[in-house]
UniProtKB/TrEMBL annotation:
This is DUF1857 family protein. InterPro entries: START-like_dom_sf. It comes from Qipengyuania vulgaris.
Length: 172
């Protein structure tokens, strides 16, 4: 009888998000924008700090301008130029209820300077979590993933200034 008053709990385990978009740019340009080792990496171009992790050649530390007290430890899991790039992200300290995420870009050449870019993200949130709170976090993560691809497309097709202007109009 008292189970009626208990909140419904979210499923356990990571959540998977899958987004894709066609981008009018060669695969090599898109790969450079997502590869943290490349000086043309989008985060670097936007003024965020991307440094190699100590003692781990495939690890990077990302510090975003808007979050100077947070480090995002990025461990590269796949670097197959120009077709796929993946990494695991461990925020330190933990940001909100997100424990970690794993992101993988697949870049499929479509000819004539176009590519299909797929972003597959797995995200692990704190457990247990009430279903209504979980739904909010899943929605925010989905919106964030969609925004990442939108800005990647804008960056590849129109350049850095277009992304910076987009951010100014969206985020003040």
């Amino acid at each position: 009888m008292f189970d009626w008053f208990k909140p419904k709990m979210a499923p356990e385990g990571p959540v998977t998000f899958d987004f894709e978009t066609e981008i009018e740019a060669p695969a090599s340009e898109i790969y450079a924008l997502v590869d943290f080792a490349d000086p043309r990496n989008a985060k670097r171009q936007m003024g965020h700090s991307v440094e190699r992790g100590e003692g781990a050649p495939d690890t990077f530390i990302l510090i975003m301008k808007q979050m100077p007290d947070a480090e995002f430890v990025l461990s590269v899991t796949d670097a197959t130029a120009p077709s796929s790039y993946g990494y695991r992200c461990d925020p330190r300290p933990q940001q909100g209820r997100l424990q970690w995420s794993a992101e993988r870009y697949t870049i499929e050449d479509r000819g004539k300077g176009k590519c299909l870019v797929t972003l597959l993200v797995e995200a692990q949130f704190d457990e247990p979590m009430p279903q209504d709170e979980y739904a909010q976090h899943v929605g925010m993560m989905a919106a964030g993933c969609d925004l990442v691809l939108e800005k990647l497309k804008l960056h590849a097709e129109q350049g850095l200034d277009a992304v910076l202007e987009y951010e100014r109009t969206q985020f003040g």
